[in-house]
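User: Sequence in, structure out. Go.
Assistant: Echoing your sequence, followed by the structure tokens.
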Amino acid sequence: MMRAYNFNAGPAAIPLPVLERAQKELVNFQNTGMSVMELSHRSKDYEEVHNRANSLLRELLGIPDNYEVLFLQGGASLQFSMIPMNFLKEGQTAHFIMTGAWSDKALKEAKFFGETRILASSKEDNYTHIPTDYSLDEVKDGAYLHITSNNTIFGTQWQNYPDSPIPLIADMSSDILCKEIDVEKFSLIYAGAQKNLGPSGVTVVIVKKEFLESAKEDVPTILNYRTHAKNNSLFNTPPTFAIYMLSLVLEWVKEQGGVKNVQKINEEKAGYIYSAIDNSDGFYKPHATEDSRSLMNITFTLPNEELTKKFLQEAKERQFIGLAGHRSVGGCRASTYNAVPKEACVALAQFMTEFKNQNS
């Protein structure tokens, strides 16, 4: 069977060995006579899957013992509400650095629960870069500082995280595990799984215990982080199959040599496509400035709409899938998440060069 070159922004590519293992185990998991989807979430067989996912994530990201790892539902979009619901107290302000549509959505939800403030934004430049024109002195006594580490729509990514004097919170949905990070810089990290962690359905939350203890008390039970921390993310029925798939993806990352080696591969993969852009004599124009370029989402435009449509059509005919840019930016976008193989990026770069030579 021919596999497409999957550059979808999300749900995104999953490593082929993971899919093949899941296929093999689908009907009879660990000789239980049942699929993992049929196991009780209170059973020993599922508990091993659940705890394996937790321990692997801790190992791969170097998560210290003073952090909780939670498996929740509702995607990053629910986290936009849960975070201020739990941590934005009366008399405090939540600060935001705006880098795209997802930070806009996070800010919108926080406004329902308390005071918010935009510390910095690159909106006036159509989010072409990560802002640097701000002072962290301005956030003292704030509830937290929120950032979006990678921006799928605009193709920008934080290269260095702020040394925040207040709790730093990051939406890492689209770049978690793509490069090494210092977890201890953050009080809370959250990530929907459907980019680098597995299929949609589970959301990972990494939260510092000290920060968790500071949360408000008057929060509905299911929306209270403490509820899930106390119950090992088993308070209600978790998305068991998605967590199983997450554990397989994490095992695959470990087999690749861990996050450090995955980062090197990602830099090489992105390098092929950025080189095709940079060496095109302006035929392809990158949306993101060079100092803010993303390893995960490469955005670019062509000289006109007619050529863009032609590019996308010919790309589709060659099994390059998911290259259309978001409507707010236009042009094209190649999402090169961890599971996108190097050969797909090489093939895309070669096609881009060939298309440019034929149409310029």
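User: And one key feature?
Assistant: The radius of gyration is 21 Å.
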